[in-house]
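From the pipeline queue, job 12 of 40. The input is one protein chain; the requested action is below.

Action: predict structure.
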Amino acid sequence: MSFKLQFEKLQSKLDTRRAIFALPREDKLKVIKDINLKRDKKTNNLDPKKIKRHKLTVEIGYGQMHDEQFDVFKIGEESCTKDAILFFYDSHFVLRPSSLDYDRAMKLSKITGNDVYLPKYPLLPNYSIRDVVRVLYSALKKVNQLGHNNIYLYGMGAGATLAIETLVYNNEKETAVPMPKKLILLSPGGFPKDRAEWEKMKEVEKKDYSTSLRHILEIKELATLKNPSVPEYMITGEDLNLNNFPESHFFYSDEEICYSKYDNYKEQFENAGVNAEFVIRHGVLHNYCADRKYPEAYEDYDKIIELLKN
């Protein structure tokens, strides 16, 4: 293990995020509310010369739409003649995008030469998971309407899970929008479908510094709180309608809770005949190749950049 990876693991272990996710629900939601207020304040101060806002026309079923405006933030040039990357950040289903997420989006735009879109999407518990997917579908539809040659959908963590669900939701629509050219997925997860997946999650919980099993189970409950008709595929990732799915690339660490869903996705994507590639790395961190921080991530980070260019 490289020194840089050891240092990143130490930093992650000392990070307060997992400690927050392990708090009792009401305490956790209070802390998260304060974090999101600070993040929203930073978002309101973004440089409009570098980052442009597009308002989303959204279809909300059970959420509090009158309280919020959802936007998709564009990093790139005024024209839409280039390819585009639609970036679903890792919210853990409850967090607003951080400064790091905007930095990643700007870096992706600079390295690939593509425009990058980062949606500010609704969160649990104010909205059901179905409302979250509806807003992200609106973001996909909006980017398609802007006239880019190709669109790449890139998701991290919860964002990767939501990316799959958004394209399945697109398949449910009578007037579906064109599928992205490629789907890049860093650690898509989901809630355990059975005892076997639950046991896999328990086995790696101590090694995963990004979240906690307590958070996973509470999110499962909150995901349907506002809408009891949420379909099963938005909860456990089962029964996915993968018709016309684009070329897909999965990246996992074997020391993260999300890895328990690997077999589920692999079986379904292969059975559906989707051109899918799965990369599993040992001993690295959740979303390990979102950045080029340590040697164990270099190869896959560089590979993702090439995938987003071609």
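Job complete. The chain has a mean pLDDT of 90.
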